[in-house]
User: What shape does this take?
Amino acid sequence: MRTEQPKVIHLKDYQAPDYLIDETHLTFELFEDHTLVHAQLVMRRNPQLGMDLPPLVLDGQQLELLSLSLDDHLLTPAEYQLDDSQLTLQPPHSEFVIDSSVRIHPESNTALEGLYKSGSMFCTQCEAEGFRKITYYLDRPDVMSKFTTTVMAEQQRYPILLSNGNPLASGADDQGRHWATWEDPFMKPAYLFALVAGDLWCVEDSFTTMHQREVALRIYVEPENIDKVQHAMDSLKKSMKWDEEVYGREYDLDIFMIVAVNDFNMGAMENKGLNIFNSSCVLAHAETATDAAHQRVEAVVAHEYFHNWSGNRVTCRDWFQLSLKEGFTVFRDSQFSADMNSATVKRIEDVAYLRTHQFAEDAGPMAHPVRPDSFIEISNFYTLTIYEKGSEVLRMIHTLLGAEAFRQGSDLYFERHDGQAVTCDDFVKAMEDASGSDLTQFKRWYSQAGTPRLSVSDSHDAQAGTYTLTFKQSCPATPGQSEKLPFVIPVELGLLDSKGQPLALRLQGEAQATGDNRVLSVTEAEQSFTFVDVAEKPLPSLLRGFSAPVKLSFPYSRDQLMFLMQHDSDGFNRWEAGQQLAVQVLQELVGQQQRGVAMAMDERLVKALCSVLNNEQLDPAMVAEMLSLPSEAYLTEISEEADVEAIHAAREFARKRLADDLFEPLWQRYQDARVQSRKQAYVAEASHFARRALQNMALSYLMLTEKPKVLTACLEQYEACDNMTERLTALAVLVNSPFEAEKAATLANFAERFKDNPLVMDQWFSVQAASTLPGGLERVQALMQHPAFTLKNPNKVRALIGAFAGQNLINFHRADGSGYRFLADLVIQLNALNPQIASRQLSPLTRWSKYAPERRQMMRNELERILASGELSSDVYEVVSKSLV
Ligand code: TRP
Ligand code: ZN
Assistant: This one.
């Protein structure tokens, strides 16, 4: 906890490290009430900076220094300076060895950063700056070292002792303690260090690399979870193969390990050779994990594995470059998921998520560029902007250069920078050099924050047979950036004639048409493109596949949107047309609600969704996506000033109308799918995901009609299904229904059935926290008293508090401000336990500028109250103080 004003760190102040650490030898003695860490650092002056010997400043926090030697000479306190974050001493020569011993307390570490205990297991989380809570060190990513690690612990309690790299030796003493030594041959920064000790079981497999090397694969879990590991193992093997085939990347150690832990601040961590995962991102079994959870496991396993190259072999020079590894790795895992499942559905999910959440971040007080200029607490910058927008930036490079040149660029990047700590500029340079293109202007995507707006207009000259599209781009001001320069915006597009057929595309000045789909590069504030040989006025299909993360507007009529829904050859844009139609219809309903006139819904939405529902040719997963109306959070994001009640009322009204009017086709498709689900045992595979997605989407509409036969079907599905996807949806729709007796009985049944499975109980909490029926806050408060709930477990906090404040907008934004007060109280409590989690839970309050004055004021008051509540962590301080300007 800080007392004085926290320091702001600026990218422009970057300086190379004065000293290097060639070797790091660590010994951990783990005990129940403390841990001893002995570190031997083989160091030298950074030869690039001269031969003088400036003071050596090591990072260290919450460490009790027991002894310190320099070249075997024990130092007295007079020979070094120590404060609560640094240890400073004077090196005698340009090469020297430091030995330190410190005492730390993993057993009481609730921040889950550094070395900590999750249940009975010891584990670490060092990214971004957690290693300094383990030993005195140069805890920065551009200091790379060769690590050897010895772990010593009681044999009975901790039979498994793991660290990075390959196992070197092990042994036992006669006091019931044993040890193991691991050696990692690759130079790595300290944030990739990991240690695990516990009573774990593992599933073992192996992978033969492209050069015929055998790699042992092990996934370690607590014994009771050993039956839930196969899906992660399959995902790992698929990832290893895919990275060889698509990026030419081969694994480099003899062993690759994953360990699942229950208490973890994020999804997972790519520590070299020893990935540590939130158990929610490893464990998957039909009966306990939904289809979405299965897909998340596959994606996160891939993400962390891909980091072995994009992050570990080539790492970041400093934390401002975080998106260098995260944006690239998210892009890689999204390509992988697209290849493993339905590419269009994956793109739809990613875009819906980006537009709802990243766009909101980019429009709020924490908005920052993909490469930030400054931060107070780096943990606050593991954001949707760094990850998701960062991935979009890479996707645009891929679109502009083409797949082949992009691959050459990535090959060059990995070859040129293997073993180095580099910058986003280095990455772009490799892309430029390999492709011969100039990305100078494109790089504004790294430095300018905010979501660009792109408004498009068109005109047709029948006489000349020309069709002109005019693009105007602008970008709103964001904190610290009032003026923005034009971006390079790749706009993938096609033109449809009046029969829905694609037109051959030929721009003025081109000798001939080239295909019916192309990418225009919009680079100026205002820019026109004229197509020739266009006899009749076409309908443009713009920004296909969401080719750039912008807010596009084009004055489509509702009939034109319905036409695109039917005829566009781009699957993503068919969905997008449906979403835009729904947005228009919903916004009209919101307006009616606000004016106090009875809501009347445009029939065309019913008609459009009816034909989607009757289209047997369409992938059922696409049908489900097209049936799902834009979320309240998205409708909020696109509003100037969001009217919480009107948005909720309008959307619910539309859902009920659709359920009533489309009852028959919904019922038909539900029944067909349910029959299939009953016949076929669960398979975690795209066509099965698709069937269940449609089945569950249909059920959630059908239940709104409150018909007895739907209730019966829902209860039958709950009881008779063999998987969590069907069971959880049945529970969720009951929880949102007025059938109180069935709801209570089913909730009780579910809790009894799964009381021993914390991840399933998380789902049980979430479903209730997200229920938009009145009284949501009281329900959440009651659930906090449930024996399975604890504020110390991040998954529990996310399941209950996160789901309530993030998804249950109508209850969280209750007009009396009690939702805000509740969240602020929790943040104050969490601040003392786990600053990273506290700061993340805060984000709904930072969105105050979207709401009407009374709500704004109440939200700001709660932020003020947090600020005045006492000693804040730098994490919470940064978000609260930036949100209040
Ligand atoms: N690098 C991790 C990833 O793959 C992110 C991460 C895991 C993290 N745990 C963390 C970041 C704790 C900050 C704090 O995305
Ligand atoms: Zn990552």
Observations:
- DSSP finds 28 helices and 31 strands in the chain.
- Residues 125, 127-128, 265-266, 268-270, 303-304, 326, 379, 382 surround tryptophan (ligand 1) (CB under 6 Å).
- The first helix runs from residue 230 to 247.
